[in-house]
Amino acid sequence: MKKWIVEAEHLTKIYQAGEVTVQALAGVDLHVAEGEFVAIIGKSGSGKSTLLHILGGLDVPTSGSVIVDGNDVAAMNHTQLALYRRRRVGFIFQQYNLIPELCVWDNVVFPLALDGASIDGAFVEELLTALHIDDKRQMMPSQLSGGEQQRVAVARALAMRPALILADEPTGNLDTITSHEVMGLIRTLSTKLGQTLIVVTHDLDIAQLADRIVEMRDGRILKGGVPDACE
Ligand code: ADP
Ligand code: MG
C-alpha cells in the first residue's frame, strides 16, 4: 500500500483580475506517493504553476482539499502557511532568487536562520559537496554561472530536509547539458534523502526521468493523476 505524501482533491482556482475571471484550475485530483518523482507537463497557461503554488502553500485554492504529508494545507491560516512553506516544502524556481548580498553558504542557511532552526553544518556541507559547489561557499551569486546559482538554490531548498520538493521549470534558464546535469543532481539527492519530487517542465527528456508524467490541459490533469494505491 502506498503512502501518499500529496493528496489533492477536486482543486479549483479562479483568479479575478478586474472584470476578467480566469479559471486556472478546473478540478484537479493528484496523488503522489512518498519518494515518487512526478513530472507535470502541459502548454503554457494550463495551470501547472498554479497547482504547484497551491501544493506549496504559496497560494490557496478556491475550492477543494490539499493534504501534504498529513497537513491540511487548504485549511491553514497565514501564519500556519508561512511555517508550512518554510519547513515542509522546498521550492526550486526557474529564477534562482538568491540574495545578491549574501555568499553561497549564507544563501543556503538563510531560511534556516530565518526559522530559528539550528544549522546542521555537516549536512549543508554534504549538500554542497553533492552539488559540486563546496569550493564556492564564500563566493557571491554574481560570481557564479547559471548552473552553479541553480545548484545553490537546490541546496537551499533541501537544507531544511523537507518531505516534498516542488520545482517549477527549474532548468528553464539553463542550456541543455547543464539542465540535465542539474536535474540529475536534484533527482539523486531527493532519492537519497527519501524526498518526494514534483517537477514542472517543458523538457520531455527531463520528464522522461520521472516515475510518472501527468499532463495538464485547461486546468485539468488529463489522466493518471490518481494511481491505484496498491500498484
Ligand atoms: P502555467 O504554469 O501552466 O503556464 P499558470 O498556472 O501560470 O499556467 O496559469 C494558469 C492560468 O491562470 C493562466 O491563464 C494565467 O494567466 C492565469 N493566472 C495565473 N496566475 C494568475 C494571477 N495571479 N492572476 C490572474 N490570473 C492568473
Ligand atoms: Mg508556469
What do these coordinates show?
With 231 residues, the chain is an alpha/beta fold. The protein contains 7 helices and 10 strands. The protein has helices spanning 48-55, 78-87, 104-114, 121-130, 146-158, 176-192, 204-207, and strands at residues 4-17, 20-33, 37-41, 63-68, 71-72, 89-92, 164-168, 196-200, 212-217, 220-221. The strands form 2 sheets. A 6-stranded mixed β-sheet has the order 6-7-8-3-9-10, with helices on both faces. It has a 4-stranded antiparallel β-sheet with strand order 2-1-4-5, covered by helices on one side. Strand 9 (212-217) and strand 10 (220-221) form a beta hairpin. Helix 5 packs parallel to helix 6 (176-192). The protein is globular. The model has no long low-confidence stretch (mean pLDDT 94).
Summary, kept brief:
With 231 residues, the chain is α/β, with parallel strands linked by helices.
What's the layout of helices and strands?
Blueprint: E1 4-17, E2 20-33, E3 37-41, H1 48-55, E4 63-68, E5 71-72, H2 78-87, E6 89-92, H3 104-114, H4 121-130, H5 146-158, E7 164-168, H6 176-192, E8 196-200, H7 204-207, E9 212-217, E10 220-221
Parallel strand pairs: 3-8, 3-9, 6-7, 7-8
Antiparallel strand pairs: 1-2, 1-4, 4-5, 9-10
